[in-house]
Each structure stands twice: as structure tokens, then as C-alpha cells.
Design a protein that fits this description.
The structure is a single chain. By secondary structure, the protein is an alpha/beta fold. The chain has one domain: 3-Layer(aba) Sandwich (Adenylosuccinate Synthetase, Chain A, domain 1), CATH 3.40.440.10. It has 11 helices and 16 strands. Strands 9-7-5-2-10-1-11-14-15-16 form a 10-stranded mixed sheet, sandwiched between helices. A two-stranded antiparallel sheet has the order 3-4. A two-stranded parallel ribbon has the order 6-8. A hairpin with a 7-residue loop joins β15 and β16. The protein binds guanosine-5'-triphosphate, inosinic acid and magnesium ion. The site of magnesium ion has 6 residues, from loops.
Length: 347
């Protein structure tokens, strides 16, 4: 049995990826949104290089700019000042998903322009060596650091959405309302702590996500780090537990990137790296996705007792490796495919 955890409530929660991105943060965020009913769901992270997949009510969505918690219709949706905004991608998502009434963008978000995308796609160092997503994020963050970038408040079409994100969030926290902050990318892609130079253009740890949306470190209650049973990586760079494509196929694991369509490299569970990632993220809880990839008999399980011995042994090993309680176990891509151990928690 996994360890018990005492949770009173979790007003300010940050959720981040523990490996190299694509851990299934979108799926876990949408589950937490429907079960915990946050008043605000805010996005931190780099920008539209992210692709979050959410499957809810029989539909599959891929979002790059808006928070993946959008499927929970009662939350205000915000994009923090640290995030790069591509206005065309943002406006397209807001329009097609019908989010205009509840969406806000911090006035200080930096803007990705066409010239950034051209540079990202044309520069052989970024495109070929690093294997960037070609979405303009690296060049746009460079211009931000050089202090020549445009901000959201300068873009007319963003006018109706522009707001002060930290003010909205901190006022909500002071009223004891739940705020869920979702990160993008993953620990191994952090500019500070990842596998430099094969990383993204910003830190990706929980502290960064809090700073992105303007929450000070003393106000964060919970940090959930999402790991997948078989870590994946897209683009170049070290991946210590990587297996060959043939081995992955034998295990039935083939994945493609949401933004670039590139085939994801697959690896085996890396307990040492997971523990290091959880340490720097200050994890208080762990979510694990892809238990059905470990053992297909577990597909769709919603209770601990429905898991096979193999899956239970694996999850116990994860807790031993990381030394943080596993509270959420995803057993398939759908919103309903989840075991929420917080339900059994003594409050
Ligand atoms: P990034 O911000 O790019 O890191 O996105 P993300 O963490 O939201 O993950 P992404 O959607 O890119 O990739 C995760 C994939 O795994 C998606 O296709 C999900 O639908 C799928 N997924 C999530 N949880 C599970 C699970 O428990 N089992 C299976 N089989 N698939 C899952
Ligand atoms: P960039 O962020 O587009 O500059 O890409 C830098 C590196 O980060 C490349 O290896 C990308 O494949 C990787 N990367 C960036 N965003 C994501 C993501 O959301 N999921 C997975 N990998 C990503
Ligand atoms: Mg992704």
C-alpha cells in the first residue's frame, strides 16, 4: 500500500512535469479541475512550444497557449507574465474553444512575432542541434532579455484580455479560493537544471511557474510533479534510460509530439532522476501517468484494488525512489481513467 498523506486543502497548487515534458500534465490538470473546482487556472511555462492533450466528454483537444484546465467551465483562465504569447495562436484557441468570457492575459507577457518564428526555424543551431519546436520561443525570450520585445499591452487585439494576473491570483488566494497553476515542458528541459544546451529557453521548475504567474514562494501550498511510467523526450539531448524504437514498439509504446508531430524517444523509468527532479521542484505529491502502458490490464482502472500486482509493485517502487507520496494514478488518456488516492485521505 502507498503511504497516507494528510491534506487539509490545497488553495495554491503548482503542477509541473518531472521528466522531459509530455508527461500528461493536461490530463492531470483537467482531473484536478473537475474534482477540486479551482476558481482560477493559470498557465506558467515558456509559451506555445508546449502541446497539452486533454480528452474530455468524448472529445480530444490539443492546446498550446490556453491553460489545459479550460475544459472545467467554471474557472477563470489566466496566462502569467512569464509566458510568451503568440497572439494568432492564442486568439485562434480562444475563439475555437469559446473561452473569451473567462480568459485573461497578463499585460506584461512578451510577444512572439513572425520574425522570431522564422529565426527559430531557419537557425541551424536551434533547429538542427537543439531540435527546437520552431515556434519562436528561443528568439523571443532572447529579445525579452535584450529588452526589445513587445508586451501584451502593446497589441490591440489582445486588449479585451489584458489584465494584472498576480493581482487576480493573490486576491483569490487571500479569499482562500483555490488557484491551480499549470506548468509546461518538464524538469529535464529546464534552462537552469536540465540537460544544457539541449533545453528550452527558460527554467521549467515549480519555482519558475510560481514566478511566471506572480505568486511568492511562501504562498504555495502544494507542488504536484507529474511523471510518466516510460519517460519520453522529443528533440536532441541526453536521455540516460532511452531504449531503441524497436524495443519500445515491442512494449507497444509509440508516441508523437502534439506540436511538431515528431516521434518521441522512449525510455525506462529513471528513479534517480525522478528523485532529483522532485527535490528541485519541492514536490509534495506525485502524479503518475501511463500505468496502462506498463500493464494493459490496468487500462481504465479507477480504484487501487483494480490494479495488477505488477502495477502496484511499480508504484511502490516509485514512492521508494522519489520519497514523496503518489496521490494520482492515470490509467488511460481519458478524464475518467484515474485513481485519485486523495479520496482516501484523512483530513
Ligand atoms: P507538455 O506541456 O508538452 O509537456 O504536455 P503534456 O504533459 O500535457 O502531455 P502531452 O499531452 O503532450 O502528451 C501526453 C500524452 O499522453 C497525450 O496524448 C495524453 O492523451 C496521453 N496520456 C495522458 N495520460 C495517459 C495515461 O495514463 N495513459 C495513456 N495511455 N495515455 C495518457
Ligand atoms: P524550444 O523550446 O522550442 O526552443 O525547444 C527546445 C527543446 O525543448 C527541444 O528539444 C524541444 O523538443 C523541447 N521542448 C520544448 N517544449 C516542449 C514540450 O512542450 N514538450 C516536449 N519537449 C519540448
Ligand atoms: Mg506535450
Amino acid at each position: 500500500m502507498l503511504s497516507k498523506l494528510v491534506l487539509i486543502d490545497m488553495p495554491a497548487t503548482v503542477l509541473v512535469g518531472g521528466f522531459w515534458g509530455d508527461e500528461g500534465k493536461g490530463k492531470i490538470v483537467s482531473h484536478i479541475a473537475f474534482s477540486d473546482k479551482p476558481k482560477i487556472i493559470a498557465r506558467g511555462g515558456v509559451g506555445p512550444n508546449a502541446g497539452h492533450t486533454v480528452e474530455a466528454k468524448g472529445k480530444k483537444y490539443g492546446v498550446r497557449m490556453v491553460p489545459s484546465g479550460f475544459v472545467y467551465e467554471d474557472a477563470r483562465l489566466l496566462i502569467g507574465a512569464g509566458v510568451l504569447v503568440n497572439p494568432a495562436v492564442f486568439l485562434h484557441e480562444v475563439e475555437t474553444l469559446g473561452l473569451s468570457e473567462r480568459m485573461g492575459v497578463d499585460k506584461r507577457c512578451s510577444i512572439i512575432e513572425d520574425i522570431h518564428i522564422e529565426e527559430d526555424k531557419g537557425d541551424s543551431h536551434l533547429k538542427e542541434k537543439i531540435g527546437s519546436t520552431g515556434t519562436g520561443c528561443g528568439p523571443a525570450n532572447r529579445d525579452r532579455v535584450m529588452r526589445v520585445a513587445k508586451q501584451a499591452k502593446d497589441i490591440g487585439e489582445l486588449g479585451p484580455f489584458v489584465t494584472d494576473v498576480p493581482l487576480e491570483i493573490n486576491e483569490a488566494i487571500d479569499r482562500d479560493e483555490m488557484v491551480l497553476v499549470e506548468g509546461s515542458q518538464g524538469f529535464g528541459l529546464s534552462l537552469f537544471y536540465g540537460t544544457y544546451p539541449y533545453v528550452t529557453s527558460k527554467d521549467t521548475t515549480a519555482s519558475m511557474m510560481a514566478a511566471d504567474v506572480g505568486i511568492g514562494p511562501t504562498k504555495i501550498d502544494e507542488v504536484i510533479v507529474v511523471f510518466k511510467t516510460f519517460p519520453t523526450r522529443v528533440g536532441s539531448g541526453p536521455f540516460p534510460t532511452e531504449i531503441s524504437q524497436e524495443e519500445a514498439e515491442k512494449l507497444g509504446i509509440v508516441e508523437y509530439g502534439t506540436v511538431t508531430g515528431r516521434r518521441r524517444r522512449i525510455g525506462l523509468w529513471d528513479g534517480e532522476y525522478a528523485r532529483y527532479s522532485a527535490m528541485i521542484n519541492g514536490a509534495t505529491q506525485i502524479a503518475i501517468t501511463g500505468i496502462d502502458k506498463l500493464d494493459e490490464e490496468c487500462y481504465g482502472a479507477t480504484k487501487w484494488d483494480e490494479l495488477t500486482k505488477r502495477a502496484k509493485d511499480f508504484l511502490e517502487r516509485v514512492e521508494e525512489d522519489v520519497r514523496i507520496p503518489v496521490t494520482l494514478i492515470s490509467t488511460g488518456p481519458g478524464l475518467e481513467h484515474i485513481i485519485d488516492l486523495r479520496d482516501n485521505i484523512i483530513t
